[in-house]
Specification:
By secondary structure, the chain is α+β, with helices and mostly antiparallel strands. The longest helix is centred in the N-terminal third of the chain and has 28 residues. The relative contact order is 0.18.
Length: 215
């Protein structure tokens, strides 16, 4: 009798756990990730470290890859990104934003950072909320253009226009004594939020032109 009661109790626990798991999966299936998931094919392309030692080689390689891919029948658009959403491969973008001074003992702010080609936003279906997308004129990096998501804009500059604001990449360095706008990236656009590491929440995020950084 005790064995039967024990088996029934264990069955109830297993069934309850399974029900909760199915409910969680159903809830996640209804979450909008913030980007297109239909009619998109992704592929990872990696070059060995030696291939990029020659100045400009990697940039030229990927530009030719984009042009050839666009020539394939049925392809509407092609884009490059160093880390796709929901892959867990986001790089940390460590920065000081304009209007948020800090002393040397304070840590810098951290966001999910991506290097993207100019067609990335349209290809993945992100919505432009303010300003503009990156353009071919930003590719060299001389414009210091950056696009951030809505969450980042609202958390840094609530009630303000984020276009034209500066964000300074500090990596692992100590905060500069003086914020130098001429060395910082300039926010030129704000796009809709996406889920990055998981469907559980959104994160601050910024995107820089792929060729505007060191190869």
């Amino acid at each position: 009798m005790l064995l039967v009661v024990g088996q029934i109790g264990l069955s109830v626990v297993v069934i309850t756990a399974a029900g909760l798991m199915l409910h969680s999966l159903y809830s996640l299936s209804r979450v909008n990730p913030g980007f297109r998931t239909d009619r998109i094919i992704t592929a990872e392309v990696s070059l060995d470290a030696g291939a990029c030692k020659q100045q400009g080689y990697c940039h030229a390689f990927f530009q030719e890859l984009i042009e050839r891919s666009r020539g394939i029948a049925g392809v509407e658009n092609v884009a490059l990104v160093d880390a796709l959403p929901m892959t867990g491969a986001d790089a940390n973008y460590i920065y000081d934003p304009e209007g948020h001074p800090r002393d040397a003992k304070q840590g810098a702010m951290v966001a999910a950072g991506r290097k993207v080609s100019t067609s990335y936003f349209e290809t993945i279906g992100l919505h432009l909320l303010r300003g503009r997308f990156l353009t071919d004129s930003d590719e060299s990096g001389s414009s210091r253009a950056a696009v951030i998501n809505q969450r980042m804009a609202e958390s840094l500059w609530p009630g303000q226009d984020p276009i034209g604001k500066h964000i300074l990449s500090v990596n692992d360095e100590k905060a500069p004594a003086v914020f130098v706008p001429d060395l910082a990236s300039i926010v030129v656009g704000v796009v809709s939020n996406t889920h990055h590491a998981s469907l559980a929440g959104n994160f601050d995020g910024g995107s820089l032109p792929s060729a505007g950084t060191k190869e």
